[in-house]
Write a structure and sequence with these properties.
This protein is 17% helix and 53% strand. It has 174 residues and is α+β, with helices and mostly antiparallel strands. The strands form two sheets. Strands 1, 2, 3, 6, 7, 8, 9, 10 and 11 form a nine-stranded antiparallel sheet that branches. The longest helix has 19 residues.
Length: 174
């Protein structure tokens, strides 16, 4: 019996340690102060999730059967966050079509150090959708979509830093 209790205690300890040491995501929007309190991201906005994609058409040229690159499409960067003091401001910026000079997203390791960054310049909020699910504790969340003219992706790992970017307006690599 004691062995079972000890095993259960160890399981719970590892479970809660894993939860406490999970990666975190934050976004900083020029002119908008968030509620994050983490020392490296104070006044940023805490995120629940994000997604962003790039797609490129591909085709085959006639004759030599070589692949060719087609038109590239950059999808909106979409975040999900809890509704907070930034919510009315984000709705207003979306409604007014305001261009935001810079938006930065960071994903951090459990120790708080950033390992992945997305930096967008000349940004517009293209949508804000608020939803609430009372079947799971009535968490009110919002999804915010951003479109941008320039984007940079940066990963920092044990082998150093890798960075790439694209200027959509000029249709060229940064």
């Amino acid at each position: 019996m004691k062995k079972a209790h000890f095993s259960l205690l160890l399981f719970c300890l590892f479970l809660f340690t894993g939860i406490a040491s999970a990666q975190r995501m934050y976004i900083k929007i020029d002119g908008v102060d968030g509620e994050a309190t983490e020392r490296n991201h104070r006044n940023w906005i805490d995120l629940q999730s994000y997604k962003q994609g790039v797609s490129s058409e591909a085709g085959v040229t006639t004759g030599a059967a070589r692949m060719r690159a087609g038109k590239t499409s950059f999808g909106d960067l979409v975040i999900v966050k809890k509704i907070d003091k930034t919510s009315p401001v984000l709705m207003q910026k979306c409604a007014g079509g305001e261009v935001i000079p810079k938006v930065e997203l960071e994903i951090t390791e459990p120790n708080g150090n950033s390992f992945y960054k997305v930096i967008m310049d000349e940004v517009r909020i293209t949508g804000v959708t608020v939803s609430s699910d009372c079947s799971s504790g009535c968490q009110t969340m919002e999804e915010v979509s951003f479109y941008y003219n320039k984007i940079t992706w940066e990963h920092t790992g044990s082998s150093g830093k890798t960075q790439a970017g694209y200027d959509i307006k000029m249709n060229r690599k940064l």
